[in-house]
Amino acid sequence: MANPKGEAANKAKRKYNDANYERIPLDVKRGLKAVYKEAADAKGMSLNSYIQEAIKEKMERDNKTTEE
Question: How far apart are CA 42 and CA 35, in angstroms?
């Protein structure tokens, strides 16, 4: 039997995320995800945060601006 309270919470989270975040699909060569995940773990970061930080640093080096 499904948990209606859990379903309502999930629906609310999806609604919030849809309104506040955009998704960027990212395909990498087989095996690289594990390499990137290991690097993120070594810094105490999630893979998502690690990738976002890498993009931010690259943009700063290229004199681009980023918004948080």
Answer: 11
Q: How many CB atoms are closer than 10 A to CB 44? A: 8
Q: Are 9 and 16 in contact (CB under 8 A)?
A: no
pLDDT tens digit sequence for 19-66: 999 999 999 999 999 999 999 999 999 999 999 999 999 999 998 766
CA distance 47 to 36: 7
Distances 5 to 15, 37, 55 between C-alpha atoms, Å: 15, 33, 37
Rounded-to-integer distance, Cα 55 and Cα 68, Å: 12
Name the residue ranges covered by the structural domains of the chain: 26-68
Distance CA 40, CA 5 (A): 34
